[in-house]
Recover the amino acids of this structure.
């Protein structure tokens, strides 16, 4: 059990984040449906940067000040008072290229703020669309890692844990991993990696997005590895392509 | 999605218990290694009843007052000041038959208190040794169910979730289940049900108990379905054979 490798833990709900030491760790914010998929999409398609904020009024206020696009969702829909939502497919190069986005979401933005409040060493964001970039960065950094699943209003969800499993499956030999959450994530991913999109209809969040809002194309994008393969780093209030 | 069946949820950490409505639910306290396995063992072997308490001094005080056996563990060992611990194998018919046990443990006792504080309708305790009794009771009651995993100091652990999966696997057709935690529990159980004891060395808690304290026989007992198949119901401060 003795090793000089850095540790890797998976935190399966924001309500458990306080159990992990973030001070010496790279924290990966994971909100597969859809915040961190949308963030990767927007940056891959040329957004200058993204400012994550916690409320709609703040999103509107900041976007006016700096001539940015205000966007966000609440409970899976475009938030009241905003014109743009949390669909990764909205952020085409034509729409977002060269622009700044101010984004507020239900779960991902909240977890990012919690990671900041808990003095995370470094924060990046990850989802299937930027899986390879996340893995490459974590191996290069050679620091402790906490894979932070945003979940749904503090409840565990499978899609975020599945992405944690995809990361673990690719880079586990570089880390010391003694964590039942990480083992569960890896087992879930290994059992379903050959047909993640076929597995998706079993997830509660799928029903929220597809049955209610018809967002099947969003789901497909969010579960496609390297569909927007860009490293996303949080620095001084901004999410930037790294 | 419309159904008249009662709901079933799995709560994978005590830190998430507040997310569930316990008022109209049977809550199953699950602490496989080892509290709820030991409780089943003691009651199956003839203990009159068990008084769960949160501190060692309280266990000693109550046991003196009512001429009971005080027992408990902290961090996997017999708690300081007590003569008996949390091993299900300690509680043979010769030792515990006709006696009362006052028990304090790291995780299970705490979760039970939380279920009380959250006004659970009914509380029972479950582990592999009383799997059939738990399933039979839940189906008969025809009420909403919350499978409450005690975890380890608020962290998720696999063994408690695995037991939740065993319950779900047996009785799912009687309930309406839309919960990613329950799906994960069921998938974990279905993947490992043919060799749960062979899977155990991968679990963090296994190392805590076996590598440090050599408790391999405890582990085997705790993972054996129906090794002490008795229904355990909490009523007026006591855990009783139902």
């Amino acid at each position: 059990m003795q090793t000089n490798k850095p540790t890797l833990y998976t935190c399966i709900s924001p309500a458990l984040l306080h159990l992990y030491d973030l001070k010496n760790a790279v924290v990966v914010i994971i909100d597969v449906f859809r915040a961190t998929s949308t963030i990767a999409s927007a940056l891959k398609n040329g957004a200058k940067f993204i400012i994550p904020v916690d409320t709609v009024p703040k999103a509107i206020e900041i976007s006016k000040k700096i001539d940015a696009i205000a966007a966000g969702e609440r409970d899976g829909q475009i938030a009241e008072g905003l014109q743009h939502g949390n669909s990764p497919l909205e952020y085409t190069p034509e729409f977002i290229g060269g622009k700044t986005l101010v984004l507020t979401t239900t779960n991902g933005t909240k977890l990012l703020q919690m990671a900041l409040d808990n003095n995370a060493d470094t924060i990046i964001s990850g989802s299937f669309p930027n899986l390879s970039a996340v893995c490459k960065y974590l191996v290069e950094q050679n620091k402790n890692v906490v894979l932070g699943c945003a979940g749904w209003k503090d409840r565990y969800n499978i899609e975020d844990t599945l992405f944690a499993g995809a990361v673990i499956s690719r880079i586990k030999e570089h880390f010391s991993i003694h964590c039942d959450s990480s083992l569960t994530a890896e087992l879930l991913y290994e059992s379903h990696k050959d047909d993640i999109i076929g597995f998706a209809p079993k997830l509660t969040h799928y029903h929220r997005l597809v049955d209610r809002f018809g967002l099947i194309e969003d789901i497909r994008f969010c579960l496609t590895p390297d569909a927007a393969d860009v490293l996303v780093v949080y620095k001084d209030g901004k999410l930037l392509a790294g």
Q: What stands out?
A: Chain A has a mean pLDDT of 95. The interface with chain B takes residues 1, 12-13, 15-16, 19, 153-158, 161, 178-181, 183-184, 187-188, 191, 202-205, 207 of chain A (CB under 8 Å). Residues 8-241 of chain A form a domain with the putative 2-phosphosulfolactate phosphatase fold (CATH 3.90.1560.10). Strands of chain A lie at 8-11, 25-30, 49-52, 69-74, 77-78, 100-104, 122-126, 144-149, 232-235, 238-241.
